[in-house]
Structures are given as C-alpha cells and as structure tokens.
Amino acid sequence: MSNPPIDPATRAEICAVACADLFAGAGEILASPMGTMPVIGARLARLTTEPDLLISDGEAYLFAETPPLGGTSPLEGWMPYRKVFDVVAAGTRHVVMGANQVDRFGNQNISCIGDHAQPKRQMFGSRGAPGNTVNHRTSYWVPKHSPRVFVEAVDMVSGVGYNHATGSPLRYHDVFRVVTNLAVLDFDTADRSMRLASVHPGSSVDEVQEQTGFPLVTEAVATTRLPTCEELRLLRDVLDPTGFRDKEVPG
Ligand code: F8G
C-alpha cells in the first residue's frame, strides 16, 4: 500500500523549520524560545537533531519529554528564577526573542518607540534582552517582516547589536540570526551588518529588501530549506495539531 500524499509545506511550517535550525548543533544547552514559532522550532529541534536540548514551560519547569504546544510532560528538573541567571552567565543558553524594532547591526528594541524622554509608545521594557545578548547566543523571530520593524537604527537599544558590542566584556556577544515570515538573516559579514542568508520559497530578494528599512547585504542568497516529511509529521500530528503556527504566519 502506498503512503497518502503529503500536503506541501506551508509558509508557517517553513518558518518553524528555520526556527528549529537555529538550534542545530547546540547540544546540551537551555533553549529559551519566546513566542509561538520559536517554541515550535525548539521542540522540533529536540525531537529531531537536538535531543539534549533543555526545554521549559517558559517559567521554572523543565520538561522531561517534548510536549505539544499547550501541553505538558513529566518533570525533568526545576529551574527557579535565580538559577536562570546562573545559566545566562554561564553562556549555556540560546534565547530567541521578539523585536519591535531591529536594525542593521542587530540591535533590538522591545522598550519604547520614539524619543526615550517622551515615547510615542511604551512597550513592556527591555527585560532580559541586555543581559542575554552580552552573555550568550541570541536570535530573533519577527512574524511580520516590515520597514516598521527593520529600521536603520532602533529608538532604544534593548538587545545589544554588533556596533555596540566592542571590548572584552562583550566577548560572549553572539547575535546569531533573525528569522522572519519572509527570510532568514544573519550577520556573517566583514562589518557584522545584516545579510540576507536565505529567502523562503515564494518570497524574493526584492520583496525582502522592500520590506526592510535599510540596505541588506545580498550576495549569495540561498533558498530556505523545506521541511522533511518527518518534520511535517511532527509539526502537524505531534507538536501543533491545532495549528497555532497558522495564526502566527497565515497562508
Ligand atoms: C510600534 C512598533 C514599531 C509596536 N513602530 N509602533 C506599537 C511603531 C503598536 C502598538 C504598541 C504595542 C532571562 C530572560 C528574560 C527575563 C529574565 C531571564 C526575558 C531576565 C525573564 C523575565 C524578564 C525577553 C523576552 C521577548 C518579547 C516577546 C514579542 C512581542 C513583540 C510585540 C515584541 C514582537 N516598530 N511596534 N508599535 N521577551 N514578545 O502599534 O500600538 O506599540 O505594540 O531572557 O525577559 O523580565 O527577563 O510587542 O507590541 O522576547 O515578541 O510580541 O508589545 O505586543 O502590541 O504590537 O496599537 O497600542 O496603538 P508588543 P504591539 P497601539 S528575555
């Protein structure tokens, strides 16, 4: 009997796999994904190439198994809030944060829009972003790639970018990638400015550039890989059967 045909990967599934690939080769570290798509990505990585990743419920509960979104698993360990800072300082962590703004050197803003003295919008504040970015690997997830988010210079630096990361205290600084609904970007350039690493199938270099408020380095742009059949099965049947991913990246 032949297997039934598999529906082609959606854009959301391509984004999930790009988020999973953030953790490729990570080994035994704490994965701290913030938001739906990074959580799906970290769990997909754990079920495929990175079984040693530590994942939590976003608070203090470390999962022994890899539950679906909204699910739980037996307890593997307990990491009270103060312990998180030990892990941050030890560098054995990869956080994937959101961003209200991100600029060409990877500075991120989750604090305020406009002049700091009298902001047009006040968000929830920089939180762990400064400490994360100077201590261990950091990536960002942006569900709607637009010039509003990708700005020439952020209004306030929450997560530290490469132009501010100089001197020996910042030797652990490692802004790795930005994954969006259109593309994967990195800082693998001589001056550590943002490079378009890959565009998702169905997007183009021109589209990504139009939606970015500064010129990207666009030499040798790849196409983001498609999920494997096993990854599609895990996404659809195991990790996200109710389709949270499609709410984050529709269509
Ligand atoms: C804008 C823009 C823009 C938004 N330009 N306007 C407007 C112009 C928008 C709305 C209004 C609100 C280690 C650790 C920690 C800890 C410890 C441990 C962290 C230290 C834990 C606890 C702690 C940080 C983790 C994230 C953020 C995840 C997201 C959000 C978002 C959207 C950021 C993308 N460009 N943008 N506006 N946190 N969140 O029109 O106007 O502003 O807009 O690691 O914490 O403390 O530290 O944010 O925005 O990673 O990703 O979803 O606020 O929801 O509602 O869109 O409509 O009200 O008029 P948001 P949004 P209006 S690590």
Describe this structure as you would to a colleague.
With 251 residues, the protein is of the alpha/beta class. It has a single domain (11-246), classed as Glutaconate Coenzyme A-transferase, CATH 3.40.1080.10. It has 7 helices and 13 strands. The strands form 4 sheets. Strands 1-4-9-10-11-12-13 form a 7-stranded mixed beta sheet, sandwiched between helices. Strands 2-3 form a two-stranded antiparallel sheet. A hairpin with an 8-residue loop joins β11 and β12. α1 packs across α2 (36-47) and α2 packs across α6 (229-239). The longest helix is centred in the N-terminal third of the chain and has 12 residues, at 36-47. It starts with 10 loop residues before the first helix and ends with a helix. It binds ligand F8G.
**Distinct compounds present:** ligand F8G
Our Rg estimate from Cα atoms comes to 18 Å
- Percent of residues in beta strands: 15-25%
The main pleated sheet reads as: 7 strands, mixed
Shape: globular
Strand order of the largest sheet: 1-4-9-10-11-12-13
Low-confidence stretches: none
**How widely separated are the two ends?**
32 Å
Q: Give me the secondary-structure category.
A: alpha/beta
How many domain modules? 1
Number of DSSP strand runs = 13
Task: Enter the CATH topology name.
Answer: Glutaconate Coenzyme A-transferase
For the record, the CATH architecture stands as 3-Layer(aba) Sandwich
Q: How many H/I helical runs? A: 7
Question: What is the CATH class?
Answer: Alpha Beta
Q: CATH homologous superfamily - what is it?
A: Glutaconate Coenzyme A-transferase
Helix fraction, binned, reads 10-25%
